[in-house]
């Protein structure tokens, strides 16, 4: 709750007129408690878990002919009932674990210094903090994910998430309740180390989940702008991890690829990429030698 009764009081306190964004924030948040504002995360997560994966389902339903060629494992198709079951399993975890965790974790948010006050952070500050959050989360998530692939961690916890060897968007948060808690730690570390405004925290939670859903979407869409982020892994990178399954000791990173490269846990993936490239070049050469009669679409380079 803001300690100002009017916009004039707020302007006097910060020593300048409020910006348009700050005026909107004042009008919305002035009479609302910090706890109420923090709990917006529950609504945001529910909407993200529901709507963003749905966009990929609709893409497959209405633009199947145009987008199917970008499906990473084109031979695997889940039925509507299987997809719906995955969504309801995720929602059950959301209401039993994620939601209550959000409700109970507010004291930690206050302790680390997430603020709701004016002035609002600049766009440059928000972007800088989000970059830091992604880097911190990616590094710590790498090691926790790698731990979950040890014999005990996989058999007792992580195998649930790997039930989907060809992941879909709804399966991004599909996991054992213990994994939800364990992998929640990396997401919290960034804001704990570099605390910012509640708006930045909201954006962080939403963007991280959207990224996870995109990574598990099962589609490597060429027009996706985040493909151009340096060292970004994406759906094709993480799909290999699911395709290999429980035996996977590769591609542990959640967002970027540098940890796997540094610690040499991407050797299997890089070998497969070289092999597929050789097959593609060989098929192209064979097609040219036969007068171009061979159609490259007959060579399934993504799923075999």
UniProtKB/TrEMBL annotation:
GO molecular function ontology, one term from the record: oxidoreductase activity
Alphabetized UniProt keyword annotations: Membrane, Transmembrane, Transmembrane helix
Main location (coarse class): membrane
GO cellular component: membrane
Subcellular location: Membrane
Family matches, as Pfam families: FA_hydroxylase (PF04116)
Gene Ontology BP terms: lipid biosynthetic process
TM spans (from-to): 35-63, 84-106
Domain (Fatty acid hydroxylase) ranges: 131-265
InterPro entries: Fatty_acid_hydroxylase, Sterol_Desaturase_Related
Protein family: Belongs to the sterol desaturase family.
This protein's name: Fatty acid hydroxylase domain-containing protein
Species for this entry: Camellia sinensis var. sinensis
């Amino acid at each position: 709750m803001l300690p100002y009764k009017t916009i004039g009081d707020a302007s006097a306190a910060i020593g300048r007129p409020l910006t348009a964004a700050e005026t909107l924030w004042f009008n919305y948040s002035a009479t609302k408690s910090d706890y109420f504002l923090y709990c917006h995360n529950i609504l945001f997560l529910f909407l993200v878990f529901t709507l963003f994966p749905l966009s990929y389902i609709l893409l497959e339903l209405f633009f199947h002919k145009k987008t199917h060629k970008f499906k990473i494992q084109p031979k695997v198709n889940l039925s509507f009932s299987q997809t719906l079951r995955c969504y309801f399993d995720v929602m059950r975890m959301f209401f039993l674990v994620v939601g209550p965790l959000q409700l109970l974790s507010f004291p930690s948010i206050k302790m680390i210094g997430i603020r709701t006050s004016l002035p609002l952070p600049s766009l440059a500050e928000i972007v800088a903090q989000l970059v830091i959050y992604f880097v911190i989360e990616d590094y710590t998530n790498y090691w926790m994910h790698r731990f979950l692939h040890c014999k005990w961690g996989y058999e007792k916890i992580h195998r649930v998430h790997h039930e989907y060897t060809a992941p879909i968007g709804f399966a991004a948060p599909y996991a054992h309740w213990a994994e939800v808690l364990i992998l929640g730690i990396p997401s919290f570390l960034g804001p704990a180390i570099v605390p910012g405004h509640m708006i930045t925290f909201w954006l962080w939670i939403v963007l991280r989940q959207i990224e996870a859903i995109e990574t598990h979407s099962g589609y490597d869409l060429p027009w996706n702008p985040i493909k151009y982020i340096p060292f970004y892994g994406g759906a094709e990178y993480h799909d290999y991890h699911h395709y290999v399954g429980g035996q996977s000791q590769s591609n542990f990173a959640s967002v970027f690829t540098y940890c796997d490269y540094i610690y040499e846990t991407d050797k299997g993936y890089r070998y497969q990429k070289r092999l597929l490239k050789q097959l593609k070049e060989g098929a192209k050469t064979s097609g040219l030698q036969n007068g171009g009669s061979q159609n490259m679409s007959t060579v399934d380079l993504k799923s075999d």
